[in-house]
Amino acid sequence: MIGAELLKLVTLPSLRWAAGLTWVATALIALAAHHAAPSEDPIRTALRWTQAGFLVVGVLAATQEYEPGGQIRATLLAAPRRPRLMAAKGVTVIAAVAVLAAPTGTLYPLSVALVGAGLGAILRSALAAVAAGLILYLVVCPLMLGRFAGSAPWLPDTELLQAERGAVAAVAWPVAAVVVAALVFHRRNA
Amino acid sequence: MISIDRVSRSRILHEVSFEARPGRVTGFLGPNGAGKTSTVRILLGLDRPSAGTATINNRPYASLPRPLTVVGALLDGSGAHRARSARAHLRWMAASNGLPRARIGEVLEIVGLTEAARKRAGRFSLGMSRRLGLAAALLGDPPVLVLDEPFNGLDPAGIHWMREFLSRCAAEGRTVLLSSHLLDLPVDDVVVINRGRVVAQGTAAEVRGEHESLEAAFLSLTGAASW
C-alpha cells in the first residue's frame, strides 16, 4: 500500500513541479539572504516565504484524490480499509517531504506540509485548502503575533522564528490537522 | 456470489435484497434515480448503509485482503487522475494489491488501449475512459465483476464489444452484476428496482412473464407505462 501511494506521488506532475519550484526558490532566496544578512540563518529566512511551497506539496498530495476522474474511488476499491489507507498515506507524505526538506536541515517544512495535507483531505479542493493554509500562515499568524505577543508558543510558525519556543506548536498543529482529517475521512461516504 | 440482504439507506433504499450468482449475468435494472448506483456503492464499501448487509462470497468488500483479486468494479469515470498516464494509473493500482506488473500490458490489450498507454487520462475520450476503468477492474483477474452503467459513453462498436465481453465472462464462470437503465441486454437474471425498492426479480424469462418483451415488463413494473 505504501509502495502504491509513493508511486502516486512521484507520477503526479503538479506535485513534481511544486516540489521543484519550492526547492529552487528556497535555494535562491537563501543565497540572497546570506549576502544581505550573513548573521542570520539564510535557510530559515528563505523558508518564511517558501513554506508556502511545502504547504502546496502537502495539499496536492491529499487533493489529487478528489480531482476530476474520481481517483478516490479507485483508491478505496484497491484499499477499502480506511484506517490502514490513512496510515499508508501519512507515512508516504512524511517520507516524501522529509526527503524534500532534508537539505534545509530542519523538520519545519514537514510540519507545514502535513497541515496542508490535513486541510486538503478535509476540504477536498486544492484551491480551498491552499487558500486556507496561506491565510493561516501568512495572515492569521503574523496578526496574532503582532497583537498578542503571548500567543507565540501556540502558533504553528513560531518554530521558524524562535526554534526553542515553537517546537510544541509545530508538532501539535500538523497532528491535529491529520487526526481531524482521518476522522472525517473514516466517516465520510466517498 | 453477491448477496444484498435487506440493505436500506435513508430515503434512497428500502430493504433491497437480491443475489447475483456465478456463471450468470445479472442485470440490475431501473430508471435513473432508482437506487442502482447507491446499492452498488454500498456493495463496494464506498457508502454506508443505514441497515442491512452486502457481501461478496460471504464477506463485506472492506474485509477482502486483496480486493482487486476478488472483485473488479467499474464506476462512473475512469478513476484515473487526469495528469497520469493510463499505464501509471494501472501501475499504482497493481502495486496496491501486489499484482504483477506484466498484467498491466495484458489488461490494456484486452480493452484495446495498448496504443494509448502513455497518454494522459485527462485527454481520453469518454469511451476510452470507460475502457481504462474496465482495464483497472480486470487487473486482478477477478471472479466477480460489478459494473455500474458499463454502456454509458460507448459507441456502437464499444457496446457490441462490451456485450460480448460480459457474456464471455459469465461463460467463464464469473459472477457479473451490471446496473443499467438500458433493457436490451444479454442478461440471464434480472432485478428491477424502482424508487429504492426491488419490484421484481428472477430469470429474464420469469420477469418478462406475460409481457411481450423485457422492456414492456419493465415499463409496467416501474409505472412508466403511463407516459
From TrEMBL, chain A:
Transmembrane segments: 15-34, 86-110, 122-145, 165-185
Protein known as: Integral membrane protein
Keywords for the protein's UniProt record, in alphabetical order: Membrane, Transmembrane, Transmembrane helix
Keyword Membrane part of the UniProt annotation: yes
Automatic annotation (TrEMBL), chain B:
Alphabetical list of Gene3D superfamilies matching this protein: P-loop containing nucleotide triphosphate hydrolases (3.40.50.300)
SUPFAM superfamilies on file: P-loop containing nucleoside triphosphate hydrolases (SSF52540)
Keywords: ATP-binding, Nucleotide-binding, Transport
Gene Ontology molecular function terms on file: ATP binding
Signal sequence, start to end: none
Residue ranges annotated for the ABC transporter domain, each copy included: 2-220
Keyword Oxidoreductase: no
Family: Belongs to the ABC transporter superfamily.
PANTHER family hit by this protein: ABC TRANSPORTER, ATP-BINDING PROTEIN (PTHR43335)
Designated name of the protein: ATP-binding cassette domain-containing protein
Species this chain originates from: Paractinoplanes pyxinae
